[in-house]
Known about the structure:
Blueprint: E1 3-5, E2 10-13, E3 16-19, H1 30-60, H2 67-132, H3 141-160, E4 164-167, E5 180-186, E6 196-201, E7 203-206, E8 209-212, E9 214-219, H4 229-237
Parallel strand pairs: 5-9
Antiparallel strand pairs: 1-2, 2-3, 4-7, 6-9, 7-8
Helix pairs in contact: 2-3
Amino acid sequence: xxxxxVDDGWVTEMGRRHAEPEAANGGESLDALHARLDExxxxxxxxxxELHDVRKAFEELGQPVPEELVELDTAELMxxxxxxxxAHQRALxxxxxxxxxxxxxxxxxCDGAAADVVESMIGVLDxxxxxxxxxxxxxxxxxxxxxxxMIRGEMLRVLGQRGFAVIEPAKGEQFDPNVHEAMQxxxxxxxxxxxxxxxxxxxxxMHERIVRPAQVIVAAGAExxxxxxxxxxxxxxx
Length: 238
């Protein structure tokens, strides 16, 4: 391949001519470049205002706007569109980063809450381990039951510190469809109609949310209000 250099600063290669790149700026300082940029921006604003006045003058005279001005408007709109797209992409990237940070924060919060509950249940496991070491041949049944009740009480105490509570309505208590589930209605001589005759299975709540309604037998003779049973069931299914 033959490359010929000529005096006018152009390079001829296989019959084609290309401009040699000019040298870098003549050592201008960064401050000087910023000053020049500010000067150009000021000139651009002044030019935009002047072009606007010229365009308005053409319109007031009822003359068509010259094609040169229309092309300048088109170029300006394209520049604004490009800038808007870049701004949208930056905003989208910022939002995605925000979502990722929120997800990480929520995951750490959930992990921390779960670890806190698990840590608090270690004492309950210790009580279980103590109960498992009992010799059933020599331990009276009363002590076994006492150990079971102690474990249950410790578990309820730990869970209660986090808003957990047992729903155990007493006999004769008014039936509440928001926290009770009627399994059966029976005739009762010593319980008022619509009141609880017997607790079949306790219910549970977590703060204000019903995890499971208490299942009860109700004295017949009164129509039971459905209340918010549907909402309670929805909570229990979650």
